[in-house]
């Protein structure tokens, strides 16, 4: 009856610490070790990812050094590789996406969190979260065949109003930095909305009530009290959206025009980091070409890590749910 | 004076409320538009051939994407084999054994990995599998998707396990169960629904990924036997066909987009319905 006596010692109230063998037998130690290994392998995979990016970009890093980041020429035939056109395209399209996406996203989040009745708010939020689940290649498909024709028809109107600025000069072929920015804005709006809505809802009710009791209108209480209270979380949602926009590949590749030049005009075709990797990786001949593309991947990785870290700090600061 | 100021404040109130309403309308309108457009355009040219035939050369009608559909399924199978065990067990660690500095680091790294752009994960799979083997394969593509699944699998498992009341664990331990037994027979079954829907959502997310497949599983005009050869996948086909200059390929791209979006959204709707029905769980 050794087995039953073990059970009794196990369940006893004042038992001494169980030995390693006992814990091993009961499965606790095994469960711990297995799950620990899985958790550790998350670190391992991430570490390996950074290591592989670093090692495999060494040819390009040693040849070009830091000047890689600011060199404007990307000429595989001549063996000249510079990242600047891609960094420029990535930053410009993401900035445009934020410029369009922030007012729309934050506006909708305010409406859904503060003004809409709960049932309507939940229903619409459900729809908007579905929008976030649409694969990016579908956005690209719609970008090519729906958005670009629409932009072609509104292009004269934009030119008439803003044509005097350097941003809207030159011919418009459809594929352009501008189109990429617009597609990206549609893609990031759901992120801004769903996170901002959460942080706005987390603002304590007495903040609103105090403002309303002092005679503020609904909008005044929202804009002067609730939104400032939630501003860190809203900023966090914007950073998360930015990180996504920077790393977005397919939708951008399909509408940006894939031209590695630095042009001030948004109507000109451009190129982004993710897009050049997607387009040229399989065709890259020679070690230097591939390693230059991998170094671009490393740059993109570093960029998104920094932005993501900032977003997490901001969202966590307001007690909002993070990602 | 006072009354005109009040009037102005009320007007600002009304105008701004309307503007935020319009923002919402725009955001939801986009989804309705995307769905409507794809259903009309993609559904139109969708036929049985799409699901049963191989792609045909340009100009020849009647082709399908059967190989890409099977390819996507195989890629997802590999992805699950990579992502689910690590994600699920890692999530158990964080929820049940966690609490130390190590857990903090794991959580932080998981969030970090979640933020890595998919194309960079593609490069990773390329350097780990394609480069040493010197050829594209289903395995490499599946690995890329699997790595993408890990962070969400970890965090959703952890979240759902944490939502299980402590009293259930205490009850099991009070009855003499070891901690491992309590987790295995009480805690995990209680969180089963949540974890399963988490996996479904996770799969739906990577099913639409294109970028990490471009230079890992590449593409294939024919069937791809086994796991060691390049394979076609639905999202990659949409990309290739959409940027090609042929009208009938564009139609095929729309059909593929329709099928992919229907699958992804159906999984999302079902999963969210299950989640909103189960009690303790938020998300």
Top keywords for this entry?
heterodimer; A: mainly alpha; MetI-like fold; two-stranded antiparallel sheet; 2 strands; disordered C terminus; B: 283 residues; mainly alpha; 11 helices
What is shown here, in short?
The complex is a heterodimer of chains A (323) and B (283). Chain A is mainly α. Chain A is built from 14 helices and two strands, in the order ααααββαααααααααα.
Describe this structure in words.
The complex is a heterodimer of chains A (323) and B (283). Chain A has one domain: MetI-like fold. In chain A, a hairpin with a 4-residue loop joins strand 1 and strand 2. A two-stranded antiparallel sheet of chain A has the order 1-2. By secondary structure, chain A is mainly α. The radius of gyration of chain A is 26 Å and the shape is flat. The relative contact order of chain A is 0.14. Chain A contains 14 helices and two strands. In chain A, helix 5 packs parallel to helix 8, helix 5 packs antiparallel against helix 11 and helix 13 runs antiparallel to helix 14. With 283 residues, chain B is mainly alpha-helical. Chain B has a domain of 163 residues: MetI-like fold (Orthogonal Bundle), CATH 1.10.3720.10. Chain B is built from eleven helices and no strands. In chain B, helix 4 packs across helix 6. Chain B is globular and about 70 Å long.
Question: How many strands, which pairing sense, and closed or not: the largest β-sheet of chain A?
Answer: 2 strands, antiparallel
The CATH topology name of chain A reads MetI-like fold
CATH architecture heading of the domain at 71-233 in chain B: Orthogonal Bundle
Structural class of chain B: mainly alpha
Biggest interface, and residues per chain? Answer: A-B, 90 and 94 residues
CATH topology-level fold name of the domain at 71-233 in chain B: MetI-like fold
Q: What is the element string of chain B, with H for helices and E for strands?
A: HHHHHHHHHHH
